[in-house]
Amino acid sequence: MASKNSTQAEEPQILRMHDLHPAPGAKRDRIRVGRGEGSKGKTSGRGMKGTKARYQVRPGFEGGQLPLYMRLPKLRGFKSPFKQQFQVVNLNRLSELFPDGGEITAEALAEHGAVRSGRPVKVLGEGEAKAAFTLKGVKVSASAKTKIEAAGGSVSQD
């Protein structure tokens, strides 16, 4: 009769959390540099004399040579955070969108897909005003204003 161990297949070994450990040599103590001769060795891996052997050198220090950040050209000027960027619509586009004329606001232009809503709009004078437009709440250039008024329209700043 065969023994019990030989008839049964060996059970697979299950890996458990308490069995895990780092590979040999993977964990080493940190070298505390510059803490005296007793800590590691005479110069503690910093070499002989010089700035870097005595204390920390600031980032970007190039040994007295003119540093890169001073050699590169600088961006001059000033950008105002309060500058308003207008969305531009020309008169010829207004004539396409509103062939019969009528009242035109920034919301109406946004509905027709000429501009995005929530941002200021300015009408410029490229093209001709083919109908009488009434512009409300929209900035208008001087040339566009004269063309609109010549076509029987009006401009009001609300």
TrEMBL record:
Functional description taken from the UniProt entry: Binds to the 23S rRNA.
Transmembrane residue ranges: none
InterPro entries (alphabetical): Ribosomal_uL15, Ribosomal_uL15/eL18, Ribosomal_uL15/eL18_sf, Ribosomal_uL15_bac-type, Ribosomal_uL15_CS
Start and end residues of each Large ribosomal subunit protein uL15/eL18 domain: 88-155
Keywords: Ribonucleoprotein, Ribosomal protein, RNA-binding, rRNA-binding
Keyword rRNA-binding: yes
Disordered as annotated region, ranges: 1-57
Keyword Ribonucleoprotein among record annotations: yes
Pfam families xref list: Ribosomal_L27A
Annotated GO CC locations: cytosolic large ribosomal subunit
Originating gene: rplO
Ranges annotated as biased composition (Basic and acidic residues): 16-40
Lineage: Bacteria, Bacillati, Actinomycetota, Actinomycetes, Bifidobacteriales
Subunit structure: Part of the 50S ribosomal subunit.
GO biological process: translation
Skewed-composition ranges (Polar residues): 1-10
MF (Gene Ontology): rRNA binding; structural constituent of ribosome
Protein name, UniProt field: Large ribosomal subunit protein uL15
Residue ranges of coiled coil: none
Family designation: Belongs to the universal ribosomal protein uL15 family.
